[in-house]
Amino acid sequence: MKKLFLLAGLLFSVASYSQIEFIETTKTEIVGKIEYVYLEKIGDKAYNFYYKNINDPIHEYVHFSFKNLDNDVEKLHQIIVKGFEENPRDPYKIKANGDVIWLKYTKVDGVVMLQIQQYVSRDPDIMTVSKLLTYEEVNKLFSK
């Protein structure tokens, strides 16, 4: 009897590992895209902000995610636009889904530009950096 239960348990465990299960994917949509940077909407409530790390020779894409709970997409856009207006000496620091992101503003040839900086959790010693973004490019990312 013990052997019968052992055999049945073994067959059941092997059969459960070999099952194929279909996983539904969430619909994604690109909100805005410019060279090396884009904003992606995931379903109804989440967003990913992707940019290529210009500090990396292979220019891998890095991202931070956030949920749009209290119109957070619009809040992020307003924070970024405020930086273009004020041109702060110190970068703005925001937190999105546990990641800390710096919004660093610099003036190049009289034009205020934004650079996104972030430490990636898998390698906390390396800072990722986006290309410099203009006010117009930021508005295009947010479809404004």
UniProtKB/TrEMBL annotation:
Q: Which UniProt keywords apply?
A: Signal
The superkingdom of the source organism is Bacteria
Where does the signal sequence lie?
1-18
Question: Can you say what this protein is called?
Answer: DUF4252 domain-containing protein
Q: Which organism is it from?
A: Tenacibaculum sp. Pbs-1
